[in-house]
Amino acid sequence: MKRLVPLWIASIAGITVIVSNFIPVALGMSDLVTQMFQVLAAVAYVLGAASIAKVHLGKLSAKRPGWGYSIVVLGCFAITLFAGLLKIGALPADRAPYLPYSGKYDSEGSVVWWIYEYAISPITSTMFAMLAFYVASAAFRAFRAKNVEAILLLGTAFIILLGRTAAGAYLTGWFPDEIGGLKLENLSLYIMLVFNTAGNRAIIIGIALGVAATSLRILLQIDRSYLGSGE
After folding, report:
1. Closest CA to 86 of 118, 111, 66, 69
2. How far is CA 22 from CA 30, 83, 137, in A?
3. Cys-Cys with 103: which of 17, 66, 90, 96 at CB 3.0–4.6 Å?
4. Sequence-separated contacts (24+) of 163-168 with Cβ below 8 Å
């Protein structure tokens, strides 16, 4: 019974949202399901925060390797949490100019806004900048001309890279207008707009079909993996 009830709740909720797109009478039920989802999402956030705190507190108390990072995680988590809950630095809203904390918690000038602009955003940029070295190393290994596919990949990457730089424009800038499409900047643009777009659309279509198939399996109670492995 403890597994049967969640299965029927998921099926009924999913079917209600789908039917509401075709039957206007069911829009009210769809809104109710959406509100229930928002409540569950809020509970999931709380459980996720509790899980993070539990894992890092356990790591900190046992002083397992890397426990110093747990101090940083817990400290940043606590600062951001209390800054958001207490709306520290939030400006008054336009509709209530006399209430000091009526604005959004992440409005410009608040502590959460400062944390995002001057901590999270620079750290994210630094992380992606460091990933560039791993991407370059992986590209060097992948672009070895071992077969036809690797040669095509190498040639395409070479055209795209040169076409996006001033060197590419200089190398093919002398081409006449009759064959202007063979200029590296135009050729790289053509590859991105035609071949790259076609590949992206194929991937998106495949993802959409996978989502539809998985959704049907959940609605028909065939896929029960979201309930866990326990009986």
Report:
1. 111
2. 12, 43, 51
3. 90
4. 163/187, 163/188, 163/189, 164/188
State pLDDT tens for residues 119-132.
Answer: 999 999 999 888 87
Tokens 């060097």 sit on residue: 140
**Please, what is the average pLDDT of the chain?**
84
Which residues share a beta bridge with 96? 93
Asked whether the whole model's pTM tops 0.85, one would answer: no
Torsion of CA 214, 215, 216, 221, to 10 degrees: 90
List of residues 6+ apart from 14 with CB closer than 8 A: 215, 218, 219
Q: By the 8 A CB rule, do 121 and 94 touch?
A: no
Main-chain phi, psi angles of 93, to 5 degrees:
-80, 160
Residue 193 pairs with which residues in a beta bridge?
Answer: none
Percentage of the chain modeled with pLDDT above 70: 95
Over residues 20-41, the pLDDT tens digits come to 888 887 778 888 888 988 998 9
